Amino acid sequence: MISVEEALARITAAFGPLAVETVGLGEALGRVLAEDVVARVTQPPAAVSAMDGYAVRAADVAEVPAVLTEIGEAPAGGCYEGTVEAGQTVRIFTGAPLPRGADAIVIQENTEAEGPRITVKEGAGPGTYVRAAGLDFRAGEVGIEAGRLLTARDVGLAAAMNVPWLRVRRRPRIAILSTGDELVLPGEPVGPNQLIGSNGLALAAFVAVCGGEPVNLGIAKDSRESLVTLAAGARGADLLVTTGGASVGKHDLVRQALDESGLELDFWKIAMRPGKPLMFGRMGEIPLLGLPGNPVSSLVCALLYLRPAIDAMLGRAPGDRPAETAVLGAALGANDWRQDYLRAHLTFDAEGRRMATAFERQDSSMFATLAHADCLIVRPPEAPPAQAGDTVPIVPLAGGTFGV
To answer: What is the pTM of this model?
Structure first.
């Protein structure tokens, strides 16, 4: 039995970045950038007005009230071609280029207009309500760095930088095979000794959130023939993930059946809870990650091992996700020899600190507690008792792990 750290190191070492492909901006959401995105334009291209009002020379409105003569107009999408001289002003709208000679904007609420006679009631210093050229970004600047999982904000920024195509990593194809005679799909008739098979669907959703392409192979029966037949559907995938059948029970046949099909086992069993019966190896050219059949254990192990494997294939470094901590909301007892991952709620205390409170019951059969949890509290092996207020490491779940 090996540690969580050793298991993670062995798994991630087995994968490298996948090939690069080009996609249009409309297909870029959720992809991982393979090359930096460099701005092709400067934004704004020239100094522009940040408000509707009047373009003025700041020196002309240093003392108010000041009366200026309107000599023209600069609409959004247009410009005033002349030059603002002493005592003059140009009506201007948000986004319009600042006319030559002007160096400030007086907002329209601080003026009174009587034909071309504009009375300024409140002055404006140089640069007031002016967006300088290149305030947002300049041509040649890196706007989005390689390795980023692209969000809607990134797509918008790339568009603003006039970049229509992006170079991204190919999505890892992750084949998912559930096992067990007792499993039926959601919506199917459920017999007295059967369970709903949630793992395949949950893992497929997890893979998609992490930037991969899930391939759900279905549910294999507890027989060598069924397992081998369905596992053959993983041909061409970058990773085969199985759930169930990896423990020591009489009907836990995955290891036995796949051994006969050429499985080269790297390790089996990890000193952790939930999720001890986890195996990793290779079937020919395809790496295999065998997750526990328990739904909570399966998803926790997916978070700890499958996501880093996908990250490695997408060229994302483990350091892209810094370690996070919280203070305990309630005391915890001493831990045993296994690394523990406790489902917990996150709140904030009176000082604004993030506070993690473990659910009272941590039975690994309780899927609802995982769905309602905000994080996992990490308890190292042989950790001593911890008191409320102690700082502990956590693995966040909300806002990106089980749904973006």
So the answer is: 0.84
